[in-house]
Design goal:
By secondary structure, the protein is an alpha+beta fold. The chain has three domains: 83 residues, ACT domain (Alpha-Beta Plaits, 2-Layer Sandwich); 97 residues, no CATH class; 174 residues, Gcn5-related N-acetyltransferase (GNAT) (Aminopeptidase), CATH 3.40.630. The chain is 35% helix and 24% strand. It has 13 helices and 17 strands. Strands 13-12-11-10-9-17 form a six-stranded antiparallel sheet, sandwiched between helices. A four-stranded antiparallel sheet has the order 2-3-1-4, sandwiched between helices. The protein has a four-stranded antiparallel sheet with strand order 5-8-7-6, with helices on one face. Helix 6 runs antiparallel to helix 7, helix 6 packs parallel to helix 8 and helix 9 packs antiparallel against helix 11. The chain is elongated.
Length: 475
């Protein structure tokens, strides 16, 4: 806002100095003329007429100066109303400044915006996309990103939209159908979808390259809400399962089957939305990257000090730890193995190769200063759900090792975007029940035929952070 005082015409001292000099010059000239004609017979009358003319000229000059300011003309662009955009369209209206929510669009009377992901099929013909854009513009919807998925007949256009909060999905779908879109699918989006596709794909490829266990998670983030199953070629009992897929993979509408680099098949299902050939090619490229890099697990270690002073190391484990894990099984009691595997104890060793494979989840191992393995914690991908499981050698129980492992596994689950984790145990397994309660997360209990299933719902605030008994070091 500009005050009346600051809006006045600025005072120019140079101009006043010039006017003063002109005044002295005029007085000198007038004195010379007076001396010249004052002694003439009509001299006094001529002097009076000259004075009257001088006064009239001065009065006219003053009136003219006040009416027409000597200040430079103001720029109309500087005082144009906010929102009266110029031809270039770079202005921002007052409505935009006040009515735009976070990441929002502007509309008359709108106070917020909503992000939508929309996918629709159009004819592969000139003007098809333009018709969709025109329909979206009529609804005051902003197109943030656009991807095209060519099909044999037509094209699938995938949009990330920012729309007025009052716009309903049904109305948006009707407008798109009227503009020529078919098989339209719409769902709410969030800020994570604002990342452009090349950046997101490169990030997923980097994560996969660093850790083989990331492949199922990367596929889920690449393809959206879907169910992923790793189907081994050989069961834990050693029998062939018959699961296989060609090298190039198989795409069947809402199901894709990819050859698992570690053997077997990776099955991806998305019943609510068919996969496109473009998505299939992206998923296959990610699996091929995993196959070329071979087995790999991050080798970081955390050294913890237990209350009694013993040091233990927590690290990631894989199939290279199979021999040490079997030796730990041999040192465990029958009761400990029975609580962990809920089946014949004689079959316990058969599960280890499956559990240690990064394809089925992540495993944390605890070893002593002498290098002996004394505990294992598993985070297992189970379709849309995630299971946690613990095994601690008898001599190392009741020292907080199980709770520490569980906290770390839950933190990994939250990193992976899991909504919940569950543990399958027995009601008499008081150690596992206590460890789940110590997470301080909302728990659900379900008992089926003597088996207790405890489900912990994860949240951003309640995520369990690793909490070593006393001291920790990273190396």
């Amino acid at each position: 806002m500009t005050s009346a005082k600051s809006a006045r015409r600025p005072h120019h001292w140079r101009r006043d100095l010039i006017e003063l000099a002109a005044l002295f010059t005029a007085v000198a000239v007038a004195d010379a003329i007076a001396n010249l004609i004052g002694h003439q017979p009509d001299g006094p009358y001529l002097l009076m007429a000259s004075a009257v003319a001088l006064v009239a000229t001065a009065a006219f000059h003053t009136w003219w100066a006040r009416r027409h300011s000597h200040a430079p003309p103001s720029d109309e662009a500087d005082v144009a109303p906010v929102g009266a955009g110029a031809a270039g369209g770079t202005g921002t209206s007052a409505g935009e400044a006040e009515g735009t929510g976070e990441g929002g669009v502007v509309g008359a009377g709108e106070t917020g915006t909503t992000l939508w992901r929309m996918r629709t099929t159009v004819l592969d013909a000139p003007g098809s996309l333009a018709a969709l854009c025109t329909a979206l513009a009529g609804l005051r919807v902003d197109i943030l990103t656009l991807q095209t998925h060519p099909l044999a007949q037509g094209t699938v256009d995938e949009f990330l939209l920012r729309a007025p909060a009052s716009l309903q999905a049904q109305e948006l779908s009707r407008k798109i159908a009227a503009a020529g879109g078919a098989s339209t699918w719409i769902e709410r989006a969030d800020a994570h979808d604002l990342v452009d596709t090349p950046t997101r794909v490169l990030s997923l490829a980097t994560r996969t390259a660093l850790d083989a266990a990331e492949l199922p998670l990367a596929l889920r983030q690449l393809l959206g809400r879907c169910t992923i199953h790793s189907l081994p070629a050989v069961s834990v009992t050693g029998r062939a399962t018959g699961q296989s897929a060609p090298v190039e993979g198989v795409l069947e509408e809402t199901v894709m089957r990819l050859r698992d680099p570690s053997g077997g098949v990776i099955s991806v299902e998305r019943p609510y939305l068919p996969f496109t050939p473009t998505e299939f090619a992206r998923a296959r490229a990610l699996v091929e990257l995993d196959a070329r890099l071979g087995p790999r697990v991050p080798r970081s270690e955390d050294v913890l000090t237990l209350p009694e002073g013993n040091e233990i190391t927590v690290r990631r484990a894989d199939q290279g730890d199979l021999t040490a894990a079997r030796a730990m099984h041999d040192r465990c009691s029958q009761d400990t193995l029975g609580l962990r595997y809920h089946g014949p104890v004689a079959d316990a060793d058969r599960y280890l190769d499956h559990l240690l494979s990064p394809r089925f989840g992540r495993t944390l191992a605890v070893q002593t200063a002498s290098g002996r393995l004394v505990a294992l914690g598993h985070l297992l991908w189970d379709g849309d759900e995630t299971e946690v499981a613990l095994l601690v050698e008898d001599d190392w129980q009741r020292r907080g090792i199980g709770s520490e492992l569980l906290r770390r596994l839950v933190a990994l689950a939250e990193e992976a975007g899991c909504d919940s984790v569950y543990a399958v145990t027995q009601s008499r397994n008081t150690g596992m029940v206590a460890a789940m309660r110590a997470l301080e997360l909302p728990l659900d209990y379900q008992i089926e035929e003597g088996t207790l299933v405890i489900t912990a719902r994860l949240s951003s605030e309640g995520a369990a952070r690793p909490s070593a008994p006393t001291e920790r070091a990273r190396r």
